[in-house]
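Suppose a colleague, Dr. K., hands you the sequence of a protein chain of 245 amino acids and asks what its three-dimensional shape might be. Before reaching for any lab equipment, you can write down a predicted structure in C-alpha cell form. Begin with the sequence itself:
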Amino acid sequence: MHEPETLNGSNVSNVHHPSITPYLPAADQATGTAILIAPGGGHQKLCLGHEGDALAAWFAEHGIAAFVLRYRLCREPDSPYTLEGHAMDDTRRAIRTVRANAEAWKIDPDRIGIVGFSAGGELAAYSAMNPEDGNPQSDDPVQRVSSRPDFQGLIYPGKSSTFTVKPGMPPAFIAFGFHDREDISIGMAKVYLQYKAADVPCEMHVYSNAGHGFGFRPDSTNAAGDWPQRMCEWLVDTKLLNQKK
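The predicted structure, expressed as C-alpha cells, is then:
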C-alpha cells in the first residue's frame, strides 16, 4: 500500500511501511548499548510522544542508542495485518537491522535490547520468547543476524496470560502501576514469578500511585516517571550498560 501514515498530535496510525527512527548519542558519550522502543496504542495507533520519541531522546542523552519502531497495526478498522505475523515480523526485523548495522552505529551487537509499552510490550515479550536465528546463507545481510534481544523492558504490557518463560531467555525489567487493570497489575506479578522459577534475571517495579499509560515525560515529578533511570541502574548491575563518567 502507498497510503501515507496518519498523524494525530503525536499519535501515528495507518502504518504500511514499518521503520525505525534512530536517536544516536554523541560519539564521546556512546556506551555501546542500544534499545529498540515499541510504542503502545492498542494496536490501533502508535503513541510516539510519551511512549516513543521522548524516551529515545532521553536514552541518547544518557549514552544509549535508541530506535523508535513504527510497526503495522492489527486492530485498526479493516486492518489486513496480524499481531503474531506482521507486527512481530516488523519487530524481529528491527532488532536484526540494529544488530546488522552495529558497527556503523557504534553499538555492541551483544547489548541490544527492546523496551515496549502496553501493546508494544507484547511485542517486546514475544521477541524474547520466540526469537529467530540468523541465516548465514541469506543474500540479505539483515537476515544473517539473530532477532534475539539481549534484554527486555516490559512496561505495563498487555496479554500477560500469553507470556511464557524458559531458562536462558533474556533478562527482563518490568514496570507497571498498582492501579492498572488486573491482567497487568496482577498478571505481570505472576510473570515475574515465572522468571524467578526459570532462574532468568528479572527486576520488577510496581508504582503504587500509577495506573496505565504513564510512559515517559521529561517533566514528570512522580516516582513512576523515573523508571528509565531505574532501568539504566538495572542495566549497569546486569553488565549490559557501562556508566559514562
